[in-house]
Specification:
Blueprint lengths: L1 E6 L6 E7 L2 E5 L1 E2 L9 E5 H4 L2 H8 L3 E8 L6 E6 L4
Amino acid sequence: MEVWPTYYAYNRTLAIALFEEGEPYGNLTCCLDDAPGRNCAYIDVNNMGVDIVDVLEKEGFGKRTGKSISPAMWCIRNFHLRRKC
């Protein structure tokens, strides 16, 4: 699995795309109107599963900010990512 940090053109917030064997696998993050802050991203737990946040913390990629957004159909967690992983 490859992790490609980039940004969303809509609001230039951090985006993290996942690739497997050079092919798109999915997006770890999602783009919302609310900018999450520097080195922060909204983790898409609806598509990646709620356990992804635990895995990211355990592997040292970052930590939870304690903020979350819960629209009707999905839940998003705000996550502060380390500058270099």
